[in-house]
C-alpha cells in the first residue's frame, strides 16, 4: 500500500516532465515570434588587423520575448534547428540583414561594409535556398559583394559534392563564403580542401589559448592561418577579448578580428559607427 502511495499522483515532482513542458512552451513562443517577425538582429563589427578599420559585421539573432524575457541565441537556435523552425527563422535573418545592411554607411576607408549571415544545415538543404539568396539581394538592393554566408562544418557534413556545387553557384553571384567555428569539427582539413570558400573563421576556443605559446591550440592556429593563406583564403579570428590576443593573432597573419575587444554585438550598428567616428 505504501508503495503505491504517490505513484500516480499528479503532484509528484518530475523534473523531466517540467523540462519538457518548458521546452514545448518555448518552442510555441518561438514559432509565434518567427511568424510575427518579432526577433531582431544585433551586428558585431569585424575589424581589419592592420588598418583597424571596420570591414563588416556579423548578424546575430536576438529574441526578447514578452513573457519569457531575453532568451539566449544558443538556446533558441538549438530549438529552432531541432524543430525545423530554423528554415523560416533563417530566411527572415537573411532578408532582414540584407535590407538593413543596404542602408549602412560606408566604413573608414570609404569601402562598403559587408554583412555576414549564419546559415544552418537545414536551410542550405532547401532546394529554394539559392533562389532565396538571389531574391534577398534583388529586393534589398544590397550588392552581392556585400554579403557573406557563414557555414559551420555540421552544415555541410551531408553531401559534400552537392554542397560544393551550390556554394560555387552562390559565389558566382559575388557572395562570399566563410567556414565558421573552424577547427571544432572532425573534418576541417577536408572542408578546406573541398569547399569553395573565401574566409576561414578560427573558433573562439582556439583564440582563448593563443597567448599560451606552447599550447597545441596556438600551434594549430598558426597552421590554419598558413594553410588558409596558401589556398587563397583570408582568416578571421573570433572571440578576441584582449589586446594581447589581438597582437599575437596579428603576428600570426590573421587578417580580420572579431570580438569584445573591438565591440560587442550592436543593436544599432549605424549609431555605433557614428559615435566611433565622432
Ligand atoms: P557564432 O556564429 O560563433 O557567433 C559568435 C558568438 O560569439 C556570438 O554569440 C557572439 O555574441 C559571441 N562573441 C563574440 N565575440 C565574443 C567575445 O569576445 N567573447 C565572448 N565570450 N563571446 C563573444 P551569440 O550571439 O550568443 O550567438 C551564439 C550562436 O548562435 C552563434 O555562434 C551562431 O552559431 C548562432 N546564431 C546566432 N544567430 C544566428 C542566426 O541568425 N542563424 C543561425 N543559423 N545561427 C545563429
Ligand atoms: Ca557565425
Ligand atoms: Ca563563429
Ligand atoms: Ca564559435
Write a structural description.
This protein has helices at 15-35, 73-83, 86-101, 121-124, 129-140, 153-156, 160-172, 188-194, 204-207, 216-230, 243-252, 269-277; strands spanning 40-48, 54-65, 69-71, 114-119, 147-151, 176-182, 199-202, 234-237, 256-258. It starts with 14 loop residues before the first helix and ends with a helix. It has 278 residues and is α/β, with parallel strands linked by helices. The longest helix has 21 residues, at 15-35. The protein has an 8-stranded mixed β-barrel, surrounded by 5 helices. Helix 1 crosses helix 2 and helix 3 runs parallel beside helix 5. The protein is globular and about 60 Å long. One calcium ion is lined by residues 181, 203-204, 238. One calcium ion (CA) binds next to loops.
Name every ligand kind in the structure: ligand C2E, calcium ion
Overall pLDDT metric: 91
> In percent, how much strand structure appears in the residues?
15-25%
Q: How many DSSP helices?
A: 12
Q: What form results from the Cα inertia axes?
A: globular
- Widest sheet: strand ordering: 1-2-4-5-6-7-8-9
Return residue spans where pLDDT drops below 50 for at least 5 consecutive residues. Answer: none
Q: First CA to last CA: what distance? A: 77 Å
Strand segment tally: 9
H-E order: HEEEHHEHHEHHEHEHHEHEH
Structural class: alpha/beta
